[in-house]
Amino acid sequence: xxxxxxxxxxxxxxxxxxxxxxxxxxxxxxxxxxxxxxxxxxxxxxxxxxxxxxxxxxxxxxxxxxxxxxxxxxxxxxxxxxxxxxxxxxxxxxxxxxxxxxxxxxxxxxxxxxxxxxxxxxxxxxxxxxxxxxxxxxxxxxxxxxxxxxxxxxxxxxxxxxxxxxxxxxxxxxxxxxxxxxxxxxxxxxxxxxxxxxxxxxxxxxxxxxxxxxxxxxxxxxxxxxxxxxxxxxxxxxxxxxxxxxxxxx
Length: 250
Prior knowledge:
Number of strands: 4
Radius of gyration: 25 Å
Structural class: mainly alpha
Strand content: under 5%
Protein backbone atom coordinates (compact mmCIF):
# COMPACT_ATOMS: atom_id res chain seq x y z
CA UNK A 1 0.00 0.00 0.00
CA UNK A 2 3.01 2.26 0.24
CA UNK A 3 5.66 3.23 2.74
CA UNK A 4 6.34 6.08 5.09
CA UNK A 5 8.45 7.59 2.33
CA UNK A 6 6.05 7.06 -0.56
CA UNK A 7 6.36 9.73 -3.25
CA UNK A 8 3.86 12.59 -3.50
CA UNK A 9 0.67 11.81 -5.40
CA UNK A 10 -1.84 13.84 -7.37
CA UNK A 11 -5.56 13.89 -6.60
CA UNK A 12 -6.24 11.51 -9.47
CA UNK A 13 -3.56 9.08 -8.24
CA UNK A 14 -5.11 8.76 -4.78
CA UNK A 15 -8.62 8.64 -6.22
CA UNK A 16 -7.74 5.69 -8.45
CA UNK A 17 -6.02 3.74 -5.68
CA UNK A 18 -8.85 4.39 -3.22
CA UNK A 19 -11.63 3.68 -5.72
CA UNK A 20 -13.10 7.20 -5.64
CA UNK A 21 -13.65 9.97 -8.15
CA UNK A 22 -11.58 13.14 -8.00
CA UNK A 23 -14.65 15.04 -6.78
CA UNK A 24 -15.24 12.51 -4.01
CA UNK A 25 -11.66 12.99 -2.87
CA UNK A 26 -12.16 16.74 -2.72
CA UNK A 27 -15.38 16.22 -0.77
CA UNK A 28 -13.58 14.00 1.75
CA UNK A 29 -10.90 16.65 2.16
CA UNK A 30 -13.53 19.36 2.60
CA UNK A 31 -15.31 17.31 5.29
CA UNK A 32 -12.11 16.63 7.24
CA UNK A 33 -11.94 12.92 6.45
CA UNK A 34 -8.51 13.56 4.89
CA UNK A 35 -5.72 15.50 6.55
CA UNK A 36 -4.94 18.93 5.06
CA UNK A 37 -3.00 18.78 1.81
CA UNK A 38 0.02 20.72 0.73
CA UNK A 39 0.18 22.65 -2.52
CA UNK A 40 2.73 22.92 -5.26
CA UNK A 41 3.97 26.32 -6.42
CA UNK A 42 1.38 26.09 -9.19
CA UNK A 43 -1.40 25.49 -6.67
CA UNK A 44 -1.93 21.76 -7.27
CA UNK A 45 -2.76 19.57 -4.29
CA UNK A 46 -0.06 17.19 -3.07
CA UNK A 47 -1.13 13.95 -1.43
CA UNK A 48 0.87 11.44 0.55
CA UNK A 49 0.51 8.11 2.29
CA UNK A 50 -1.70 9.54 5.04
CA UNK A 51 -4.23 10.75 2.50
CA UNK A 52 -4.44 7.38 0.77
CA UNK A 53 -4.76 5.56 4.09
CA UNK A 54 -7.44 8.01 5.19
CA UNK A 55 -9.47 7.47 2.02
CA UNK A 56 -9.26 3.69 2.40
CA UNK A 57 -10.14 3.95 6.08
CA UNK A 58 -13.14 6.11 5.25
CA UNK A 59 -14.43 3.59 2.73
CA UNK A 60 -14.30 0.79 5.29
CA UNK A 61 -15.60 2.89 8.19
CA UNK A 62 -18.53 4.17 6.15
CA UNK A 63 -19.52 0.58 5.37
CA UNK A 64 -19.14 -0.48 8.99
CA UNK A 65 -20.38 2.50 10.97
CA UNK A 66 -21.98 4.87 8.46
CA UNK A 67 -20.54 7.95 6.73
CA UNK A 68 -21.24 10.39 9.57
CA UNK A 69 -19.40 8.32 12.17
CA UNK A 70 -16.63 7.53 9.65
CA UNK A 71 -15.88 11.24 9.21
CA UNK A 72 -16.04 11.81 12.95
CA UNK A 73 -13.49 9.08 13.62
CA UNK A 74 -11.12 10.30 10.92
CA UNK A 75 -11.33 13.93 12.01
CA UNK A 76 -10.36 12.73 15.48
CA UNK A 77 -7.44 10.72 14.07
CA UNK A 78 -6.16 13.77 12.19
CA UNK A 79 -6.23 15.86 15.38
CA UNK A 80 -3.98 13.08 16.75
CA UNK A 81 -5.53 12.29 20.14
CA UNK A 82 -5.06 8.55 19.58
CA UNK A 83 -6.94 7.40 22.73
CA UNK A 84 -10.05 9.34 21.66
CA UNK A 85 -9.94 7.89 18.15
CA UNK A 86 -9.51 4.37 19.49
CA UNK A 87 -12.43 4.90 21.87
CA UNK A 88 -14.67 5.87 18.94
CA UNK A 89 -13.64 2.75 17.04
CA UNK A 90 -14.30 0.62 20.13
CA UNK A 91 -17.75 2.21 20.40
CA UNK A 92 -18.49 1.28 16.79
CA UNK A 93 -17.56 -2.35 17.51
CA UNK A 94 -19.64 -2.27 20.69
CA UNK A 95 -22.62 -1.02 18.70
CA UNK A 96 -22.42 -4.02 16.39
CA UNK A 97 -22.08 -6.34 19.37
CA UNK A 98 -25.26 -4.84 20.85
CA UNK A 99 -27.06 -5.39 17.56
CA UNK A 100 -25.96 -9.02 17.53
CA UNK A 101 -27.35 -9.53 21.03
CA UNK A 102 -30.65 -7.86 20.10
CA UNK A 103 -30.82 -10.07 17.04
CA UNK A 104 -30.28 -13.21 19.13
CA UNK A 105 -33.06 -12.19 21.51
CA UNK A 106 -35.36 -11.36 18.60
CA UNK A 107 -34.70 -14.76 17.05
CA UNK A 108 -35.64 -16.54 20.29
CA UNK A 109 -38.74 -14.39 20.77
CA UNK A 110 -39.96 -14.73 17.19
CA UNK A 111 -39.57 -18.51 17.27
CA UNK A 112 -41.61 -18.65 20.47
CA UNK A 113 -44.29 -16.27 19.17
CA UNK A 114 -44.58 -18.06 15.84
CA UNK A 115 -45.06 -21.41 17.57
CA UNK A 116 -47.91 -20.20 19.78
CA UNK A 117 -51.21 -21.86 18.85
CA UNK A 118 -54.17 -19.67 18.04
CA UNK A 119 -57.15 -21.22 19.83
CA UNK A 120 -60.80 -20.60 19.11
CA UNK A 121 -61.20 -16.88 18.69
CA UNK A 122 -63.65 -15.00 20.84
CA UNK A 123 -64.62 -11.36 20.58
CA UNK A 124 -63.14 -10.74 24.01
CA UNK A 125 -59.72 -11.96 22.81
CA UNK A 126 -59.28 -8.98 20.48
CA UNK A 127 -57.34 -5.89 21.56
CA UNK A 128 -57.67 -2.20 20.81
CA UNK A 129 -54.80 0.06 19.81
CA UNK A 130 -54.18 1.40 23.33
CA UNK A 131 -54.29 -2.07 24.89
CA UNK A 132 -51.86 -3.57 22.40
CA UNK A 133 -49.54 -0.56 22.55
CA UNK A 134 -49.35 -0.89 26.34
CA UNK A 135 -48.70 -4.63 26.07
CA UNK A 136 -45.84 -4.10 23.59
CA UNK A 137 -44.42 -1.02 25.29
CA UNK A 138 -44.84 1.20 22.21
CA UNK A 139 -46.91 4.27 21.45
CA UNK A 140 -50.34 3.92 19.83
CA UNK A 141 -48.99 6.06 16.99
CA UNK A 142 -46.40 3.34 16.32
CA UNK A 143 -49.16 0.76 15.78
CA UNK A 144 -51.00 3.17 13.49
CA UNK A 145 -47.78 3.62 11.49
CA UNK A 146 -47.35 -0.16 11.22
CA UNK A 147 -50.94 -0.40 10.00
CA UNK A 148 -50.35 2.31 7.38
CA UNK A 149 -47.22 0.50 6.19
CA UNK A 150 -49.01 -2.86 5.98
CA UNK A 151 -46.91 -4.48 8.70
CA UNK A 152 -49.51 -5.31 11.36
CA UNK A 153 -52.97 -4.70 9.93
CA UNK A 154 -55.99 -4.85 12.29
CA UNK A 155 -59.65 -5.22 11.54
CA UNK A 156 -61.76 -2.05 11.34
CA UNK A 157 -65.03 -1.94 13.24
CA UNK A 158 -67.99 0.10 12.00
CA UNK A 159 -69.23 2.73 12.15
CA UNK A 160 -66.03 4.72 12.90
CA UNK A 161 -63.43 2.28 11.60
CA UNK A 162 -61.99 1.61 15.06
CA UNK A 163 -58.92 -0.64 14.95
CA UNK A 164 -59.30 -4.02 16.62
CA UNK A 165 -56.56 -6.68 16.66
CA UNK A 166 -57.49 -10.35 16.57
CA UNK A 167 -55.15 -12.86 18.29
CA UNK A 168 -53.46 -13.57 14.94
CA UNK A 169 -53.02 -9.84 14.30
CA UNK A 170 -51.64 -9.37 17.81
CA UNK A 171 -49.10 -12.06 17.01
CA UNK A 172 -48.14 -10.23 13.81
CA UNK A 173 -47.61 -7.03 15.81
CA UNK A 174 -45.45 -8.87 18.32
CA UNK A 175 -43.29 -10.25 15.51
CA UNK A 176 -42.95 -6.78 13.95
CA UNK A 177 -41.98 -5.37 17.33
CA UNK A 178 -39.23 -7.96 17.81
CA UNK A 179 -37.86 -7.45 14.30
CA UNK A 180 -37.89 -3.65 14.63
CA UNK A 181 -36.09 -3.98 17.98
CA UNK A 182 -33.44 -6.08 16.22
CA UNK A 183 -32.90 -3.29 13.67
CA UNK A 184 -34.99 -4.60 10.79
CA UNK A 185 -36.11 -1.71 8.57
CA UNK A 186 -39.72 -0.83 7.81
CA UNK A 187 -39.24 -1.13 4.04
CA UNK A 188 -37.92 -4.67 4.41
CA UNK A 189 -40.74 -5.61 6.78
CA UNK A 190 -43.24 -4.24 4.28
CA UNK A 191 -42.17 -7.01 1.90
CA UNK A 192 -41.92 -9.68 4.58
CA UNK A 193 -45.11 -9.40 6.62
CA UNK A 194 -47.63 -10.25 3.85
CA UNK A 195 -45.87 -13.62 3.53
CA UNK A 196 -45.99 -14.06 7.30
CA UNK A 197 -49.73 -13.43 7.30
CA UNK A 198 -50.04 -15.84 4.39
CA UNK A 199 -48.91 -18.73 6.59
CA UNK A 200 -45.18 -19.06 5.77
CA UNK A 201 -44.41 -17.55 9.14
CA UNK A 202 -41.38 -19.29 10.60
CA UNK A 203 -39.44 -19.85 7.37
CA UNK A 204 -39.79 -16.24 6.17
CA UNK A 205 -39.06 -14.66 9.51
CA UNK A 206 -36.05 -16.93 10.00
CA UNK A 207 -34.75 -15.87 6.58
CA UNK A 208 -35.26 -12.22 7.51
CA UNK A 209 -33.23 -12.64 10.66
CA UNK A 210 -30.48 -14.44 8.77
CA UNK A 211 -30.35 -11.55 6.29
CA UNK A 212 -29.97 -9.13 9.18
CA UNK A 213 -27.22 -11.29 10.69
CA UNK A 214 -25.36 -11.33 7.38
CA UNK A 215 -25.60 -7.55 7.18
CA UNK A 216 -24.06 -7.18 10.63
CA UNK A 217 -21.27 -9.57 9.65
CA UNK A 218 -20.46 -7.45 6.58
CA UNK A 219 -20.29 -4.32 8.73
CA UNK A 220 -18.10 -6.09 11.29
CA UNK A 221 -15.66 -7.16 8.57
CA UNK A 222 -15.59 -3.58 7.26
CA UNK A 223 -14.62 -2.31 10.71
CA UNK A 224 -11.85 -4.88 10.80
CA UNK A 225 -10.53 -3.57 7.49
CA UNK A 226 -10.85 0.00 8.77
CA UNK A 227 -8.83 -0.85 11.87
CA UNK A 228 -5.88 -1.88 9.71
CA UNK A 229 -5.90 1.46 7.88
CA UNK A 230 -6.38 3.44 11.09
CA UNK A 231 -3.45 1.59 12.64
CA UNK A 232 -1.31 2.62 9.70
CA UNK A 233 -2.43 6.25 10.10
CA UNK A 234 -1.54 6.27 13.77
CA UNK A 235 1.89 4.80 12.99
CA UNK A 236 2.46 7.50 10.38
CA UNK A 237 1.59 10.18 12.92
CA UNK A 238 3.92 8.65 15.53
CA UNK A 239 6.85 8.18 13.17
CA UNK A 240 10.02 10.14 14.04
CA UNK A 241 9.99 13.47 12.31
CA UNK A 242 6.28 13.27 11.50
CA UNK A 243 4.78 16.69 11.07
CA UNK A 244 1.52 18.09 9.99
CA UNK A 245 0.42 16.81 6.61
CA UNK A 246 0.50 20.27 5.12
CA UNK A 247 -1.13 23.66 5.33
CA UNK A 248 -4.91 23.90 4.86
CA UNK A 249 -5.98 24.21 1.28
CA UNK A 250 -7.01 27.57 -0.01
